[in-house]
Amino acid sequence: MKEHKYKYEWKLKEANFTKDKGNVFSCFACGGGSTMGYKLAGFDVLGCNEIDPKMIEAYKVNHNPKYAYLESIQTFKLRKDLPEELYNLDILDGSPPCSSFSMAGNREKDWGKEKKFREGQAEQVLDNLFFDFIDLAKELQPKVVVAENVSGLMMGSAKDYVKRIYEEFKNAGYQLRIEPYLLDASKMGVPQKRKRVFFIALRNDLADNFMEQVDMFQVAPKLELNFNEPEIPFKYISQKDKEFENKEWIDLWLKMKEGDSLEKFVGYGFNTIKIINDKVMPTIAGTQRINSFKSAGLIHPTQCRKLNNKEFCLGGTYPIDYDFSVGKGNANFTGYMIGMSVPPVMTAQIASRIYEQWLSKI
Predict the structure, then answer these.
(1) Nearest Cα to 310, choosing from 334, 294, 288?
(2) How many helices (H) and strands (E) does the chain have?
(3) Among 253, 270, 249, 252, which residue's Cα sits nearest to residue 261?
(4) pLDDT tens, position by position, 304-333
(5) 172: pLDDT strictly greater than 90
(6) Which DSSP string corresponds to 60-120?
(7) Element (H, E) at 357
(8) Catalytic annotation on 98?
(9) Which residue of the set 27, 48, 98, 304 is catalytic?
(10) What is the pTM of this model?
(11) Which domains are present in the chain?
């Protein structure tokens, strides 16, 4: 297989984080998926903001951040005691939870309703979190803002929501170059199909450094984010794990062909799929469950089981030595964390382009 720019199998303890490309702060940081991506690309990630106690504990154990704020974004954005270096960031990163815009969810039925993901989290109107994040950007004024979200944000009625995102970025000082990019992780050296939208905004005064004439408007050059990395079929990350097999599921497992959904056989579980060994596996979702064959989760194509910890790490490009001990090493917790995270390699690819095309020229 052709060499990839970033390896999908790697270890934290062996990684060479140069920290010479600029400073980053991450919001909605989860276990640090995007944080590790920025580090792989050579950035120094100063810290994080996260509302889930388990997630931030895992973040601290694995990343030892200089700053870590366990609180809602609504509280964090109002702080007046933030350190000065957070006002001089190269990149402010965030993945505001917007599951209500996911094509796999209820969409319009959930818009404007309070929801929460896990224990320890306050109920929030998830649709508003994106705007809270932009409020923080308005306060901190980083050079670049990167906001990741579900692909459903660009579809149907949600387009009106996107118009408001543009308006809020404009009010924050980022209207000259704001671009939404719909990217598929499987084209970027990640062993899973994962489509996500990235809003990438450059601060107005910095856009003046390299203005160009486009259709009578002065704008900063558009980022080129075309990735043509070879796809990585599941067979390259599959592990032999006889201990993880469960013969109680064997009859149902044998009935399912590769690519089949569980819904075909039991009437539910449309996103519980038997992986096709020779193709890139489907998205690792945050709803992964391994303790029941009939619950949500990807099914191994050649062994009667769900995915194990290492397969989750490889598929999500998490380091294989990541410490999941806060979740007691349980594959349910591992799958949940990785499913909720931006794959590190996906972020690294984007971050390297931001540096090469924008930050290195400022």
Answers:
(1) 334
(2) 11, 11
(3) 270
(4) 999 999 999 999 999 999 999 998 888 889
(5) yes
(6) HHHH--SEEEES-HHHHTT-S---GGGGS-SEEEE----GGG-TTS-GGGGTT-EE--STT
(7) helix 344-357
(8) yes
(9) 98
(10) 0.91
(11) 15-229+343-361 (3.40.50.150), 234-340 (no CATH)
